[in-house]
Amino acid sequence: MNLIIQGKDIPTPSLKQLAKLSGADAIEAVSLTAFRLQKAHESTRAEVAAWCEANALDCGWVPAGRRIGDFGLLVMDMDSTLITIECIDEIADMQGLKPQVSAITEAAMRGEIDFAESLRRRVALLAGLDESALQRVYDERLQLSPGAEALLAAVRAAGIRTLLVSGGFTFFTERLETQLGLDYTAANTLEIIDGKLSGRVLGEIVDAQAKADWLNQVRTTLGLKREQVIAVGDGANDLKMMAEAGVSIAYHAKPVVRAQASQALNRVGLDGVIPLLGGA
Prior knowledge:
By secondary structure, this protein is of the alpha/beta class. 39% of the residues lie in helices and 22% in strands. It has helices spanning 12-22, 45-54, 87-93, 98-109, 115-124, 132-140, 148-157, 170-180, 208-222, 239-243, 255-260, 273-276, and strands spanning 2-6, 26-29, 34-38, 58-62, 73-76, 161-169, 184-193, 196-202, 229-233, 247-251, 263-265. The radius of gyration is 20 Å and the shape is elongated.
């Protein structure tokens, strides 16, 4: 196994100490924020994880033979994963209801409330809001997560297709699809009547199971195997989707998600996914 160490500032003595702790043969710089410790001993996983946690570093174990070209589909959550915000919280802020909506969002992401029920409750609070608020959120508040464009460029160069699947709204996923050149998107549709949000969602809600179904549908369409899929998410409603992927990555995620993912990134941006996919 190769041990991938990532962080905003990794002192050379720390790398040498990790190489000794893990029994690695060599240290290879992957980028300014990522290093590959070659042929590390996986039996040291617990000790390495504890050391990295204490020193604010991310670590991941990657099969030495893995290559980015082994993969064919990258599936991502949108809110707090591809982008830095929770769109519904920012929409609610236009109504002066952000604290109430954010509290429901957080409970749902921790897995304490059924996602579909939480979405209906949150959207109901938005009834009467002018639809122009959605564009304002997109223009004024939506930002890509650090490293998002680098990740998308790397997977595109490797011929990997992209699916953005969100419990959020098509208003945002469709615009990001165009902006970023994504291959597939799926999300919920807000009902708008006479230019105002009705407080309802149209059609079936894209919940945890729907996210997993979308992943499998696109994977089947592309003729890929499970192990050729990467899934990245941060909340409890991403767990079923992540369970269907060969590599699942918890990105700045809730503890319940980190505990079940095959990899976790807590200190670096989305470009930190790239070293976890292996060599070029």
